[in-house]
Write a structure and sequence with these properties.
The chain is an alpha/beta fold. Strand 8 and strand 9 form a beta hairpin.
Length: 232
Amino acid sequence: MRVLLAEDDQLLGSGLRAGLQQQGFQVDWVRDGVAAQRELLTGVYQACVLDLGLPRQDGMQCLAAVRQQKITTPVLILTARDGVPHRIAGLDAGADDYLVKPVDLMELAARLRALVRRAHGVSEPTLEAGALRMDPASRQVWLGDRLIDLSLREYEVLQIFMLHAGRVLTRTQIEQQLYQWGTEVSSNTVEVHIYNLRKKLRSDVIETLRGVGYMLPQQVKPAPVTGHKGTA
């Protein structure tokens, strides 16, 4: 899950990025409001953690500009401004959540997961597509009653599909949500992860639409029941 962190404090920003990465997020970090606005306008992020006291452009100005451009990326304001009027102003300006520094990293991660779920129309704590179920908090995946052992990157690819179940995703769209800045991506990396997911799940769970992309159905079928009939 790729998120944008907009924080000008070097020490705090470094700690937040490292902590969120440990929680399974891919984090791009900018240090001023102009850069934050530019990155949010790309529309590639699942969520944004936005400080208000940014140089070059205040976080509130950044948020207002982004919302005027109809960018709906969930934004969590993280600031030292703890007054109720500041919270009201931030939420009314288009923020989806508001936390006051200092912040507990586990709570920040949980709030980001909740924001992303709600942005995709999911109110439950787990993501489900028929028989396929994912718990983002524990990073566990089940197909029916079977717990699936996935690598971190395989889990991240599957999470992208789960959040967009029923929609066709191109390889470029998957890469944009999967990798943060500075990550070298081989031309067939996404295909390799999808191949491995099919081996661990089932070959028909992720569909290929040739010349277009890939899709996870909204209703993944359970594994067929196998057995032998007894003889009379």
